[in-house]
Amino acid sequence: MVNEVVAVKRLTLLHSDDWHGCLMFKVDKDLVMYGGISMMADYIKRVRSSEDRVFFSISGDILEADIQGADYKGVNTVELINSIRPDAISLGNHEMDYGLAHLLIFKECLGMPVLNANIMVAPLNKHLFQASLVRDLQGVKLLVIGLLPRSFFDKIDSDSFCRDMLSYKDSYEAIREESRRHADEHIDLVVLMTHYGIEGDRALAREMPADCRVDLILGGHSHIAMAAPEVVNDIVIVQSNYGTTHIGRFDLGIDTAAHRLVSWRWKLVEITSENCDFDEEIESLADRVLYTNRPISKGKIGEFAVPCHHESRLLETELGDIVADAFQESYGVDLVLLQSGSIRRMECSGTLTEAELRELYPYDDVFVEVGFSGKELREMFAWLFARKPDGSLISGKFQYSRGFELVVDFADCRNQGGRIVHLHLWGEELDDSRIYRLGFTRNCAKNFYRYFSRRIESDTIQVRSLSTYNDLARWFLTRSGPVVPPPKGRFIALHYEELRRDD
């Protein structure tokens, strides 16, 4: 009995995910400061000084989503990330936003391992990134494996060279391979750093093969503040919200004689001025690298007549309608497919400044036009909502421009997916032989096959703009009065409750 007690050692795991470039603190209505890398750094420093064994990880999407990420493409965040010394980082989908070359350079600038066991250099059968990490924390052996779903791999598998050179290793195969590779090292705890989203993590744990040992999944992508971890198939799953407003903390008991997890306690720590101090050195560094190089205009760009919201990525929203209409008016296409995730503010009201517009739409992408026949459009939207061979549903989430009417019935989504019952453009059914001009960003074009099961030939693309952000700003500046949200009705989801239950 005494030997068992002696064998149990304490390990503290700090985990974060989905920073999206949100590295500066903000102030709420009660003048409480929250979030930001300088207060998070203070919390991490205090934990490291008070605990013997500490491991800190970030599960993907460090880049993008606010003004700093859009302007500097993550280069300005490298020095800050290195300053708080994560033990490991794994990949998210937004690390792919600027292409493979950017990602590889970004990885080399970071002072810690970037883990991913899925992406392979096919001709060499070699991992492109470090697949896993073994860390001995004063007698506790920790194995950490980085994983990414196939759908995000497809974002870098977009040109012929990458398609020839890269391949995707199944996650279970990767877990099994890394576990066997370190089988002789007497591993005490196996942790996955994933970016599958909470539903993907649940499925990953639920279907985990018996010969794949996993104790914890530190996930990302869903942007959720979990009240408590979930336990699926004896695997503990958790995420830590969005940005730098929270950090997850596990206090674990590890039996190093039996090499197993015997106890855990978790809490989601709020990063606020009420329980964290400022790390003045890092705050000074953040101020220099995030703001000094590019002053942000506070001038008025536009105005909203009433508060407008973006409360759902799947359903039609007021801000989605407005931005899609802005691009339609700017480029004159028949229909704009606006990726819902490109809208990053949940609400806009009153005066719109440049800084707020950058938060609303931080992506300065190329806008392209491609022609599709009415027959092709019906097939594309049928696939978008169909139940896929792998069981997944809805391959992409969009907002649509004025004149579009789409009604999808999800009553039998478990078996058949969503069934399109109404598809009109400008009040008319689609003409099979007519060519309709669709407009969307380069990012959408790169993922078009995944969304619509249809490849776009490069010679069919017409570039309409090299700066969607500037064109959106110009659209707001040329309004004669406040922007009024148009009536809804572009996308109607019948029996939506069935879809939510299925998810």
CATH secondary-structure class of the largest domain: Alpha Beta
For the residues shown, what is the average pLDDT?
89
Radius of gyration over C-alpha positions, nearest whole angstrom: 24 Å
Main β sheet profile? 6 strands, mixed
Instruction: Report the helical percentage.
Output: 25-40%
- Count up the domains: 2
The shape, in one word, is globular
**How many helices in DSSP terms?**
18
CATH topology of the largest domain: Purple Acid Phosphatase, chain A, domain 2
- Write out the CATH superfamily name of the largest domain: Metallo-dependent phosphatases
Tell me the total number of β-strands. Answer: 28
Residue windows where pLDDT falls under 50 for at least 5 positions: 1-5, 65-70, 292-296
Overall CATH architecture of the largest domain: 4-Layer Sandwich
> How would you name the oligomeric state of the polypeptide chains in this document?
single chain
Portion in strands: 25-35%
How far the N terminus sits from the C terminus, by CA atoms, comes to 46 Å
Secondary-structure topology with pairs:
Blueprint: H1 2-7, E1 8-16, E2 26-27, E3 33-34, H2 37-50, E4 54-59, H3 67-72, H4 75-84, E5 88-90, H5 100-109, E6 114-115, E7 119-121, E8 126-127, E9 132-137, E10 140-146, H6 150-153, H7 160-165, E11 166-168, H8 171-181, E12 189-193, H9 197-206, E13 216-218, E14 230-232, E15 235-238, E16 246-255, E17 260-270, H10 280-292, E18 300-309, H11 318-331, E19 335-339, E20 347-353, H12 354-360, E21 367-373, H13 374-385, E22 398-400, E23 404-409, H14 413-416, E24 419-425, E25 428-429, E26 435-441, H15 442-446, H16 448-452, E27 462-465, H17 468-477, E28 491-494, H18 496-502
Parallel strand pairs: 1-4, 4-5, 5-6, 10-12, 12-13, 13-15, 19-26, 23-28
Antiparallel strand pairs: 1-16, 2-3, 7-8, 7-11, 9-10, 14-15, 16-17, 18-20, 19-22, 21-26, 21-27, 23-24, 24-25
